[in-house]
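Known limitations

C-alpha cells in this collection are predictions and should be treated as such. Users comparing against experimental data should check residue numbering before alignment. To illustrate the layout, the record for Platelet-activating factor acetylhydrolase IB subunit beta homolog is reproduced below. The input appears on top and the generated C-alpha cells appear beneath it.
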Amino acid sequence: MNTCKIPVPVDDSDGDHRWLSIHNRFLSESKEKDADVIFIGDSIVQALQHTDVWNELFVPLHCLNFGIHRDKIENVLWRIQNGELDNVKPKVIILHVGTNNLSNTPEEIRDGLIELIETIRKKHPNVYIVVPTLLPRGQNPNPVREKISRVNKLLKASLDSQFKIELVTIDNGFIRTDGTISHHDMYDYLLLTNSGCKKAFEPVHDLLLQLLSDGEPENDLTPSE
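Generated C-alpha cells:
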C-alpha cells in the first residue's frame, strides 16, 4: 500500500490544532486574495516566504504561499482535496513536497507526486504545474541523498513532455566537489539559508517569468553548474 496516495491530515499529536489552523487560514486567503501563482508544499515552500528572495522575486508576481512545515505528499493531497485550490484561478501552481516521505520508496514518492499532479489537474485543467526537484540533504554523502536523486530521475522520466507540466532543476550547485553541503546554503543541511534560497529558486523565477508572459518555456531550464 502506497501511503503517499492516501490523503490524510497531519496527526495532531500535540493537541494544539496548529496544522488545521494553518489549513483554514489558507482557505481564507484563497477566497480573499487574487494570485497568479500559488506555491504549495512542505517546509522548503513555507520557509521561502520568510526570505528576501520571496520579497524580491515572488511578491511582485502576485504569489500565495501554501507551504506547511513537515508536510508529506499525503498531507498536501488532503489539503487540496479539502478546498485549498477550490477558490483560486492561478496561472501557475508550484508543487514542492516529498522530502519528508523518505520512509517510502522512490517509486512510491514518484507515484504520490503524480497523484497530486492529477488531482491539481482535475481542479485546474489549464494551469501550468511546476515541480522543482527535491534538494539533497545532509552535510556529507549519505543514502538519503541517493534516494532523493533516484526520485528526481524518476520524475524527469515520468513528467517529460507532459501537458503544461515543467520539472525545474533546483538542486545544482549545493553539493561541493568534496561531496559536502555548506551550512551557508543549508543552515541545518536541509532548510535553506537566504543565499541557498536564491540558488534554488532563481531557476523557478526565471521559468515563471516565461510562463506568466504567455511564452513557451525554453527547452532547457537547468542552470549551469
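For this record: The domain at 17-212 is CATH 3.40.50.1110 (Rossmann fold). The helical segments are 18-32, 43-48, 52-58, 73-81, 106-123, 143-159, 194-212. Please report discrepancies through the issue tracker.
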